[in-house]
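Onboarding guide, step 5: your first structure request.
Type a short instruction followed by the sequence, for example:

Predict the 3D structure of this protein.
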Amino acid sequence: MAYVYRAVRVEKPEWEKIPAVTLTHQPWLAPCDIEASAQLCHDGENLYVRMTAKEKNIRATLTGPLDQVCNDSCLEFFFAPKTDDARYFNFEWNRLLSVYVGFGGARKTRARQILKDPKALFAPAAFDTADGWGIEYRIPKAYIQMYMPDFELRGEAACNFYKCGDETEIPHYLAWAKLSSDTPDYHRRQDFGKLIFE
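The system replies with structure tokens like these:
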């Protein structure tokens, strides 16, 4: 099965009009009733991300710049801006707007990004729903271009969406594009789906 997401170009995000994908794969652990979905769009200068989770007991405790937010209830977007480049970003958020950002290719060469003011850069907003929570934020093209100067929000890229909670009441792993590892591992570039900027 091919996993393809088309990020439409908009003047501003109107999420009720943006197609969503569901994170249906639950590898490694017994299936649970936690659910998640994701949406993307762009305006030529920013990539906008919105993810939601159906989750009863939300764990939100971590606030430090070096905390492993994947231990909390966490929504994650892994993004490879160029199809011919193994490097990718991982954006991991909890309900308190604590973020872990990483960048690189092979696991040994990846580097955590310590950002001076991630809230000013990404403009994140968390929200509650009737049965869970969600987050939306932007990724400025200019930020990506600090690492890949010729990147533009057009053509093809690659990505995957994840939901996890390593230390939640019900530990869980969810993914959009199917994962091929026998053990928990989101950092597998070969498991990303295709992202097309329209």
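Each response can be followed by summary notes, for example: The first helix runs from residue 118 to 122.
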